[in-house]
Design goal:
Number of strands: 11
Radius of gyration: 19 Å
Number of helices: 7
Largest sheet: 4 strands, antiparallel
Order of helices and strands: HEEEEEEEEHHHEHHEEH
Strand content: 15-25%
Distance between the termini: 24 Å
Structural class: alpha+beta
Shape: elongated
Length: about 230
Amino acid sequence: MLMMDETIRYTACTISSHFCRCFDKLTDEERVYLDKQSVAIRYKKGEIICKQGSFVSQVMYVKQGLVKVYLDSGNNSLVLKIIPEGNLLGLASVSQEYNTYQYSAMAYIDSDIQQIDINVFRELLNKNSEFAKEVIDILSSNSVQIYGRFFCLTHKQAFGRLADIILCLSERIFKKKEFDLPLSRKDLAELSGMSSETVIRILKKFHEEGLITINGKNFIVHDYDRLQQISDKG
């Protein structure tokens, strides 16, 4: 329960925070069975991994890389989340009620994906309750994150949204203050729901104020506290 002086923090972060541990719950026999019904595929940067509306045939595990999950209307797109290594893709389709992908996914960088036969995945959900519980936890975490993201895209100003994205990249993807960002300014604009010009202007402002240092693709986060304050104020 929240105390009266506690603040609920909503973030525009798109990055999965729940590391997948469901495979640890499988028995040795189940793990061998799953591996036999899986195939590893490498996707190049920019390649489509699954297409919204196409028939579902597998659940995918991101062994290495970075994947963008998004909705696409043909004219417009909305990024739902970014999936780093150690996470599952396609869980929204494990229910037999949905036989098509509800979103598209694209490799942000070169990515290694383990494709698991969806019927085998469903079979293991039915047989192993601990495995199923972990998958439910992932689905719940995903839902909470997307709710917070939509709140921020609706109510936060541009500075707050971009501060969210920078904090998420540093804390959840690279887990350090200095990193080489594989995403373009256009990608950052897409993630934060604003134009590329606005992102460039705000990054310049953050740089001038000593919050970050940018040198090409190299980012250094200097002041987490002030970025968090900007995020909180929206």
